[in-house]
Amino acid sequence: MMKKSFDYFRFIQTVSPWILLRSTVNALLSTAVPLLVATLLGWLLNAVTQQTALRPLIIQLAVFILLIAVVTSLHLASAVSYEVATRDFENRINERTTAKLTDVSNETFNDRDFRAQYAAASSGWMYTGSFHSYFNEILMNSLNLGVAVIAAAVVLGPIVTAKATQPWLTGWPFVLALVAITAVGIGLSYWLVLRSQRYQKQFYDVNIGVNDQMNYYLNDLTWPYENGKHLRIYDPEDRTVAHMRQAQEAANTKTSQVFFRMHAMMHAGDALLVLLSGGFYLLIGIKALSGALPVGMVVLAVGYLTQLMRALAAFMSQRAFQKTTEQAMDDYIKFLNYPDQPATGSIPVEKRQDHKFEIVFHDVSFRYPGDKQDAVSHVSLRFKVGERLAIVGRNGSGKTTLIKLLLRILTPTSGTITLNGFDIQKYNLAEYQQLFATVFQDFQLFAFSVAENVAVSPHPDRERVWQALTVAGVADRVKAMPKQIDTALTRNLDSGGVDVSGGEAQKIAIARAWYKDAPFIILDEPTAALDPISEYEIYQHFDQLVEDKTAIYISHRMSATRFASQIAVMAAGQIVQMGSHEQLMAQDGLYRDLFNAQAAYYTEDKIKAERAKGEAAFNI
Ligand SMILES: Nc1ncnc2c1ncn2[C@@H]1O[C@H](COP(=O)(O)OP(=O)(O)OP(=O)(O)O)[C@@H](O)[C@H]1O
């Protein structure tokens, strides 16, 4: 067991060096300073009463006051130093958590077990308060127990040895009687601790699930301000609250029973202490009544003995909470060490100024875990250098999945994808992903400055940021912001931040892709949030946006395909047609249907008919 405790101490120490030392100094001073101050005050009093000459008295007084000032200041400094260390510890844990969440591969990130492990780790962290107190509490409780043992021994010595008229009240029989009461107390306390440990564990386990649910309601559902509008429009009757209450009530039913038992154990512990005090009173009281001890000693001795039992009970029940903290630390360490399936590839990606990178899909299929059908099925495709390829198809046809396979966010279930002849899985992942600048359909901006959002770096090339914003058609909007490119987006991290519209945000995401200057540019519905003029402008700048890169874009706006030299049409995970706009329009197939269905909205006749229908309805 001890070996295990040391493992946890070591973990705490590796998270934040010096914390154990600071904790130890603080604990020692916390225990010693009150005793030291009391002793010094005692000496001071003696000096005042015994010293007759004024000069040595003043010197003695000055020395005592100085000593008291020094030890109390030391104590204060150590308390502050420990407090700082605990903050540092908490920050480092948060850093490690964030680093793990951002460093694992996408597969692991989406892995159910990994997410469950994270939920357990974060609940444990929240539930136990923090891990560093684990060491501190063991230390404090041990010191308290040590002091209580010494104090009790000092007081008990004269009581045990005092001669009484009845022989059993002297020597070993009396000691044995004291030990018997203490032993019964320790035994019962230990039993209570074991029970309460079990209930603590149950309570902790139940709480992990409950915290997880409540987190969803409080942090994910009701707090993000993009959710505000949905809740106000679609939840006027507060069904969210009712839903949460239901979940809370179900959780309460589960927790209240175990909570009640846990507390019953604690109160039983208090009652036990009262009983033990009674036992001590009886035993020592009898000895006092026999005339062997002054009555005042009874109160003193029982006080010290009860204090000893209290320290013992605290030491043991702290052990119960320690177990919970150990489990929380185990969960956290498991999360940190969660085996990732790191990208295996190590081949460096050749740096080519001419951007001659050719990617080929060889009979690639992919199925999401648990799904019954392939999301991408037997796709063979060649991305020619400098080509502009559009991918079109109905919702759910597999377009985004195809892009994720290309980006190595997903790994093919079968088939291979090659870059310049080598399987892309064999390349160093970070270098490989640097080949792509992507604007995802659900792009994310961060609550950092515009410049950092565009450059994705804390040291942006400011001139290039402006160029990127110009290409994306959002430079004027940024110029009007209070701190221009240094303005934070959203007020999540900076109260002077600004909120941009959906379309403006999308333009900033496009600027980010341009800034990256990667050989491949991938745009998944890049203009979905843009107004027709902005969309027109983006396509006007399309040459500037794409330059000589290989461009792949997905769009439901069929008119956007005119910028593509090749169009791949997807249906049910397969590429069902491939060719230029003219070639595909000449074929009787899905492309022509999609194109005509959209174009039909814009024919003169259609607009006239719709308008007439609207007017008729209005006249009624
Ligand atoms: N994370 C996922 N887990 C399970 N199935 C998924 C997941 N993501 C997508 N799918 C399924 O894979 C299929 C293809 O989805 P994909 O997002 O690639 O389609 P898409 O053509 O990009 O659609 P859209 O035009 O609506 O964006 C869909 O049937 C979808 O339900």
Short synopsis of the structure:
The protein is α/β, with parallel strands linked by helices and 620 residues long. Helices cover 64% and strands 9% of the residues. Bound molecules: adenosine-5'-triphosphate.
List the uncertain runs: none
Approximate helicity band: 55-70%
Strand order of the largest sheet: 6-7-8-3-9-10
The global form is elongated
Strand coverage percent: 5-15%
Number of helices: 21
CATH topology of the largest domain: ABC transporter transmembrane region fold
First and last CA, distance: 85 Å
SS class: alpha/beta
Number of strands: 10
List the bound ligands: adenosine-5'-triphosphate
Show the helix and strand layout:
Blueprint: H1 2-15, H2 19-50, H3 54-103, H4 106-110, H5 112-128, H6 133-161, H7 171-221, H8 225-234, H9 239-289, H10 295-336, E1 359-366, E2 376-383, E3 388-393, H11 399-406, E4 414-419, E5 422-423, H12 429-433, E6 436-439, H13 450-455, H14 462-471, H15 475-479, H16 502-516, E7 520-524, H17 532-540, H18 542-546, E8 550-554, E9 566-571, E10 574-579, H19 581-586, H20 590-599, H21 604-619
Parallel strand pairs: 3-8, 3-9, 6-7, 7-8
Antiparallel strand pairs: 1-2, 1-4, 4-5, 9-10
Bound molecules: adenosine-5'-triphosphate.
Adenosine-5'-triphosphate is lined by residues 368, 371, 375, 393, 395-401, 441.
